[in-house]
Structure formats: structure tokens, C-alpha cells
């Protein structure tokens, strides 16, 4: 039975969002020790999520959950993609680089992608899910909430950027929210019946 779940990320924004999705579970959530570093050598978001969950689970001897996420911009052939977090040193650097590379291009279509993996203490993957949120890249940032590229990611159906959205709306419609909506019923089942049925 899972009692402790290690959240395998060092990104404070991700930690906050993941904890919000997991708050109703009877689990003791623990942050990944800073001493554990995982090289994200995967070629997809799901591969990187698996790597992080698996290696942190093995290193800690506990169940671990990890996500890998990023922004894919159509006019930039899917960039920054897997390199979203490494597109600059700070959030403003990353946003400025993206807006500069996109320039006046009228094709502003983009999507956020999030892959989530849950690993057993032996490193084997028990559950995984992937979520998407489509939107557009604005010409300049709007809003003060969220993190990363949130101020320039506009969701037409909501009429707001991620950075302008109330937290409860973002939690429902975001890429991370949609990935967790898939994962949570299966995680509840796992907590109820144990992992023997997996």
C-alpha cells in the first residue's frame, strides 16, 4: 500500500500544482531530495516523466510521481518542446526568446503538453497519463499568476492567459490538470485495492 509519495521535481510551480491535484489522497507527499539529480535524456515528455519517477523511486525506496511538460509552438516546429525549461535562464528570458523567435508570424497556435508517471519503489512504472491544452501565443505577457510561459499562453475558450486564470479554472483545463484527471481515478483504485491488480 502506498503511504509516502515522493514528488519528483525541483520546480516550485510544478510542486504547487501537483500537490493541489493530490491533496485529497490519504498520502504523505514528500519533495524529492535536492541531492537526487536525473538527466532528462528521453526523446518524449513521457520518456522523461518515466525516467524521473523511476530513478527517484529507486533512489528513495518509495513510490514516486513525476511529470514532464512543455510548450510546443506550431510555427517553431514544436519548439521549445522538451527544452521549454532550458530555453533561457529565467522565465522572462524564456518568454522573450520565444516572442523574438516567433516575431510577427500570424500563426500563433501552440499547445502545452504534460506527461505524468507513477513509479513503484523498484522503479517500475505503475501508471501514466498525458494531457494537452491548446491555445495561442500572445504578442506580449498578460497576467501575474502561474509560472513559466503562462503569461503569453492564451486560451480562447476562456478569454484569458494561464497567468490571468483563477487557480481552480487553470487546474481543470490545463495540460497538467487534464493529465491528472486521467491519472487520479486509477490512482484512487490503486490506493483502494493495492497494486496486485496492475
How would you describe this structure to a colleague?
The chain has 198 residues and is of the alpha/beta class. It has one domain (4-197): Maf protein, CATH 3.90.950.10. Helix content is 33%, strand content 24%. The protein is built from five helices and seven strands. It has a seven-stranded mixed β-sheet with strand order 2-1-3-4-5-6-7. Strand 4 and strand 5 (125-137) form a beta hairpin. Helix 1 packs across helix 5 and helix 4 packs across helix 5. The protein is globular, with a radius of gyration of 17 Å.
What does the secondary structure layout of this molecule look like, with pairings?
Blueprint: E1 4-7, H1 12-22, E2 28-31, H2 45-60, E3 63-73, H3 91-102, E4 109-119, E5 125-137, E6 153-155, E7 160-161, H4 167-173, H5 175-193
Parallel strand pairs: 1-2, 1-3
Antiparallel strand pairs: 3-4, 4-5, 5-6, 6-7
Query: How many domains, in number, for the residues?
Result: 1
Determine the structural class based on helices, strands and strand pairing. alpha/beta
CATH class categorisation: Alpha Beta
Helix content: 25-40%
Question: Which architecture name does CATH use?
Answer: Alpha-Beta Complex
Which short descriptors sum up this protein?
198 residues, Maf protein, 7-stranded mixed sheet, 7 strands, 24% strand, globular
In short:
The chain is an alpha/beta fold and 198 residues long. The protein contains five helices and seven strands, in the order βαβαβαββββαα.
Amino acid at each position: 500500500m502506498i503511504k509516502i509519495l515522493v514528488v519528483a521535481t525541483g520546480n516550485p510551480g510544478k510542486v504547487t500544482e501537483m500537490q493541489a491535484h493530490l491533496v485529497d489522497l490519504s498520502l504523505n507527499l514528500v519533495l524529492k531530495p535536492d541531492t537526487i539529480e536525473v538527466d532528462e535524456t528521453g526523446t518524449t515528455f513521457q520518456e522523461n516523466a518515466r525516467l524521473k519517477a523511476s530513478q527517484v523511486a529507486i533512489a528513495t525506496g518509495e513510490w514516486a510521481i513525476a511529470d514532464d511538460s512543455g510548450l510546443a509552438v506550431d510555427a517553431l516546429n514544436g519548439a521549445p518542446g522538451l527544452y521549454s525549461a532550458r530555453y533561457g535562464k529565467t522565465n522572462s528570458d524564456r518568454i522573450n526568446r520565444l516572442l523574438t523567435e516567433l516575431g510577427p508570424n500570424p500563426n500563433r497556435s501552440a499547445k502545452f503538453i504534460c506527461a505524468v508517471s507513477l513509479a513503484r519503489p523498484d522503479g517500475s512504472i505503475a501508471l501514466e497519463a498525458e494531457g494537452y491544452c491548446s491555445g495561442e501565443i500572445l504578442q506580449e505577457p498578460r497576467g501575474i499568476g502561474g509560472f513559466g510561459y503562462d503569461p503569453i499562453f492564451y486560451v480562447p475558450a476562456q478569454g484569458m492567459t494561464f497567468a490571468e486564470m483563477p487557480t481552480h479554472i487553470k487546474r481543470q483545463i490545463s495540460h497538467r490538470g487534464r493529465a491528472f484527471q486521467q491519472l487520479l481515478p486509477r490512482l484512487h483504485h490503486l490506493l483502494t485495492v493495492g497494486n496486485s491488480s496492475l
